[in-house]
TrEMBL record:
This is D-alanyl-D-alanine carboxypeptidase. The keyword Metal-binding does not apply. Gene3D superfamilies: DD-peptidase/beta-lactamase superfamily, Sporulation related repeat. One of its GO terms (biological process) is peptidoglycan biosynthetic process. InterPro entries: Beta-lactam/transpept-like (IPR012338), Peptidase_S11 (IPR018044), Peptidase_S11_N (IPR001967), SPOR-like_dom (IPR007730), SPOR-like_sf (IPR036680). Residues 355-376 are annotated as: Disordered. The keyword Hydrolase applies. GO terms for molecular function: peptidoglycan binding; serine-type D-Ala-D-Ala carboxypeptidase activity.
Length: 504
């Protein structure tokens, strides 16, 4: 077998010639083994394209294709290694200057790498910067092995356990670097979940993902995330590539107070990967919600947000009934574990996962799935879950108490069959309790004031399977533009909403 090994950072190898001499046989054997694994993997699985774009504040999925089809993560795996590292730093288990040894397996990994011999040490800061900037495989594997040893289980088991705790139910990790293993897989939705978790749980460390270069022992090493360097507002996260996975990317960008997280898996090349991400981000920023609370559930997510807006003009479906994305994490929790648990519980309660293909190779060329169409994924836990999420700034119990004390006012809220409805309406919530819907509508009316005095609030009960929700809507708008103006006014006061046709 003949293969070519391209080293884009030869300084990483040349700076330690003694390592190459003393370990040349071991390294060559490991690289040959890795190459064989890659060649076998390439014949048994082909990279399937998938993508997903999410609004971090609202949790709305703005665009999705094959978002639940499993694929290989490549170096996106290092995002989980970094999550575990940041978590250990936050808990005081590690410090930035703590030294971690190069594990036996890590010493045998192919480049990109620090090329340190087994038993040599690096600092946690060097590991973090190396994983982010040059995707250092030996640093990632050593950190993963460190956590596996400390916690009494294998590296991959620790990574997978954390992934599932975050709600990444369709992800399995085997190693810490992302070097190809046919048993290691993820989905676009799961990678978006991980990207959002990093932003949410580690705000003090997230800025490191924007590093373009770092200095490792007198060598300045540069990264290669070219899209991040040129796209306005983009400040992380991670690229990835192996032959079986294709070109992968998780990115986050922020403009005008709106933060989006995008995932591209299985692109044909680096340029294709960048162009797909750029197009998604552009479409998302053209209409992403500015809301910071999860009150109004998003429009139909099968299409891009722009396409969904066009569909709404033709009576597009109400997202309260067909939400096909992840729920935003409650940002008020000071405990990342509690926050992650609630997030995972919410998703499992609200969304029926798609059936995974038994063989990832069989699923990669399948038609895009049509998740959650025209139904709610019923769950006995959904009412309890929604009560924890609504509203963001106050627990639902507080809303209910306020509703109870303001019963005469709330009683004025009519039902859908008791009002004359306009062609265009504004939905401010889809909740599980009538008193919560009434209170939210009263609050919305207070915000709109005399300018929209003619607007009538009403509730509408919808059922799908075993689950029932109450839509909280405003009607009586003369035009679509008038409804949009009202929604913008609500959003300016951090009240979530969207405009919808009355037939939806």
């Amino acid at each position: 077998m003949v293969f070519a090994l391209s080293v884009q950072h030869p300084a990483l190898l040349l700076c330690f010639p003694h390592t190459l001499i003393t370990n040349s046989a071991k390294i060559l054997g490991a690289v040959l083994a890795m190459a064989l694994a890659l060649s076998v993997g390439a014949t048994t699985a082909s990279a399937g394209e998938a993508r997903l774009l999410m609004d971090l504040q609202s949790g709305q999925v703005l665009e999705a294709e094959n978002a639940d089809v499993q694929n290989y993560p490549a170096s996106l795996t290092k995002m989980m290694t970094l999550y575990l590292t940041f978590e250990a730093l936050k808990k005081g288990e590690l410090a930035w200057d703590s030294r971690v040894p190069i594990s036996k397996l890590a010493a045998l990994t192919p480049p990109y790498k620090f090329a340190l011999p087994e038993g040599a040490t690096f600092t946690v800061r060097e590991a973090v910067e190396g994983m982010i900037v040059i995707s250092a495989n030996d640093a990632a594997q050593s950190m993963c092995d460190y956590f596996g040893t400390k916690r009494g289980s294998g590296c991959g088991a620790v990574m997978t356990k954390k992934a599932h705790a975050l709600g990444m139910s369709r992800t399995t990790f085997i190693n810490g670097s992302g070097l190809h293993d046919p048993r290691q897989f993820t989905t676009a939705r799961d990678m978006a979940t991980l990207g959002m978790a990093l932003i949410r749980d580690f705000p003090d460390q997230y800025h490191l993902f924007s590093l373009r270069a770092f200095t490792f022992r007198n060598m300045k090493l540069r990264g290669h995330n070219s899209l991040m360097y040129r796209y306005e507002g983009m400040d992380g996260l991670k690229t990835g590539f192996t032959d079986p996975s294709g070109y992968n990317l998780v990115s986050s960008a922020k403009r005008d107070g709106r933060r989006l997280v995008g995932v591209v898996l299985g692109a044909k090349n680096g340029a294709d990967r960048a162009s797909k991400m750029e197009a998604m981000m552009d479409a998302g920023f053209a209409g992403a919600s500015r809301s910071k609370a999860l009150m109004a559930l998003a429009p139909d997510n099968k299409q891009t947000l722009q396409a969904a807006n066009r569909a709404a003009e033709n009576g597009g479906k109400d997202a309260a009934a067909i939400l096909s994305g992840s729920i935003a994490s409650p940002s008020g929790s000071a405990d990342p574990a509690q926050s992650a648990s609630l997030w995972a519980t919410t998703k499992s309660a609200l969304f029926r996962p798609l059936k995974a293909p038994e063989d990832p190779a069989q699923g990669t060329n399948a038609s895009p799935p049509e998740p959650f169409q025209d139904d709610l994924a019923g769950s006995a836990h959904v009412a309890k879950t929604l009560s924890k999420l609504l509203p963001r700034a106050k627990p639902l119990s507080a809303v209910a108490k306020k509703a109870a004390t303001a019963a005469p006012r709330a009683s004025r809220i009519k039902t859908a069959n008791a009002v004359s409805r306009s062609a265009w309406e504004v939905q401010v919530a889809a909740v599980d309790r009538p008193e919560a819907a009434s209170t939210l509508l009263s609050q919305a009316k207070d915000v709109l004031g005399a300018k929209f005095a003619q607007i009538m609030p009403f509730t509408q009960t919808i059922s799908r399977g075993s689950m029932t929700l109450i839509r909280a809507r405003l009607t009586g708008f003369d035009t679509k533009a008038s409804a949009e103006a009202a929604c913008k006014l609500l959003q300016a006061k951090e009240k979530s909403c969207f405009v919808v046709g009355s037939k939806a």
